[in-house]
């Protein structure tokens, strides 16, 4: 941001991609940088200069249904005075800041009805100006979740659905009435992008109508929650991101199906633990498709950053899960590798400011 006789800018000192317009950080890392106030040949009168570091989730799926969850919002005064104003001579003024990100925050994401965003904002208060002048510099938070440290990811998952077709709402004739049973299991619950989800299913079609095809699909779900004075209201957006089609099941027969669906490489990881306003999850859906009716069975799964290894390969893992990839080197401005603990068990929320 610049005016006739001054400019205000925010710079990040080090991150995993210092050339990016929005630097990348992981929970537990330190956001470090400086605010630069440059004044041209004339002096500048101001009442104050402040810094805000904030992270939040928000959703907005109608005019009346909005919500925001604040993860942190830390504000500090870089310049303040008890007088009406102070006067700074021409020159460049730098104010360093650093902030240790909490561990329990979700990653940055933009969804259909909401987002999770993080930014640093500097505001300058100039006398006689109606509004403070602000400059905002967003940054991206990425979570790194190794499934080998998470409980329950190796557990098999088995679900059973029985559906009695006994209503005209199913568009069946009386001779088509009967019971459909779908039984499906997965060898594990946790997967990583690029893996295949193998589905073993058994479908028993005791109606007199044929199941034409069986769909095995992976769905990406965005869940939004808005708390109003009278109720908690939820909105869900589901998108099919991978699918395999198997042959159907003749009336009166039982068929076993073993198919797989791919978790796309660009899949976001599951995010359900750290935000109540905007969450992301996945499920595998096995759908028996009659001519006019679909009977679905949903199996929830968890998507992490690192795939499960063989159990014997996990014996030498560190006791505390890493917060970012072990191979990641964070480079300081002087070119040296930054030393920062990767398995921090506590998070500092102190903002350090220096001029």
UniProtKB/TrEMBL annotation:
The transmembrane segments are none
List the InterPro entries hit by this protein, alphabetically. Answer: Arrestin-like_C, Arrestin-like_N, Arrestin_C-like, Arrestin_domain-protein, Ig_E-set
Q: Which residues form a coiled coil?
A: none
Question: What keywords does the record list, in alphabetical order?
Answer: Sensory transduction
The chain positions of domain Arrestin C-terminal-like read: 176-308
| Highest taxon of the lineage | Eukaryota
One Gene Ontology CC term in the entry: cytoplasm
Task: Supply the SUPFAM superfamilies for this chain.
Answer: E set domains
Name recorded for this polypeptide: Arrestin C-terminal-like domain-containing protein
Native organism: Polypedilum vanderplanki (Sleeping chironomid midge)
């Amino acid at each position: 941001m610049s005016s006739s006789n001054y400019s205000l800018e925010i710079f990040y000192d080090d991150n995993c991609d210092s050339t990016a317009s929005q630097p990348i950080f992981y929970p537990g890392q330190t956001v470090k940088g400086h605010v630069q106030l440059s004044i041209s040949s004339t002096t500048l009168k101001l009442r104050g200069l402040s810094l805000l570091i904030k992270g939040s989730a928000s959703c907005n799926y109608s005019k009346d249904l909005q919500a925001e969850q604040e993860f942190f919002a830390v504000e500090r005064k870089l310049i303040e005075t008890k007088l009406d104003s102070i006067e700074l001579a021409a020159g460049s003024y730098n104010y360093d800041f650093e902030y240790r990100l909490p561990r329990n925050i979700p990653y940055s994401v933009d969804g259909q009805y909401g987002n999770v965003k993080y930014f640093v904002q500097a505001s300058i208060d100039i006398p006689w100006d109606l509004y403070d002048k602000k400059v905002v510099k967003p940054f991206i938070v990425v979570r790194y979740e190794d499934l080998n440290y998470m409980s329950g990811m190796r557990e098999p998952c088995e679900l059973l659905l029985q559906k009695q077709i006994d209503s005209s709402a199913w568009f069946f004739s009386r001779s088509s009435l009967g019971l459909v049973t779908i039984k499906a299991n997965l060898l594990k619950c946790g997967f990583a992008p690029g893996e295949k989800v193998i589905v073993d299913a058994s479908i028993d079609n005791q109606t007199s109508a044929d199941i034409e095809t069986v769909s095995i699909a992976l769905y990406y779900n965005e869940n939004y929650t808005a708390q109003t004075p009278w109720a908690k209201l939820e909105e869900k957006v589901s998108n099919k991101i991978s699918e395999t089609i198997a042959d159907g099941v003749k009336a009166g027969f039982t068929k076993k199906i073993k198919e797989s669906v791919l978790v796309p490489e660009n899949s976001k990881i599951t995010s359900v633990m750290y935000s109540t306003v905007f969450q992301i999850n996945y499920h595998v859906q096995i759908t028996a498709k009659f001519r006019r009716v679909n009977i679905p069975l949903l199996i929830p799964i968890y998507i992490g950053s690192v795939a499960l290894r063989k159990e014997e390969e996990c014996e030498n893992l560190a006791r505390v899960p890493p917060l970012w990839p072990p191979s990641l080197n964070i480079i300081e401005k002087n070119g040296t590798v930054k030393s920062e603990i990767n398995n921090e068990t506590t998070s500092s929320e102190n903002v350090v400011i220096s001029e």
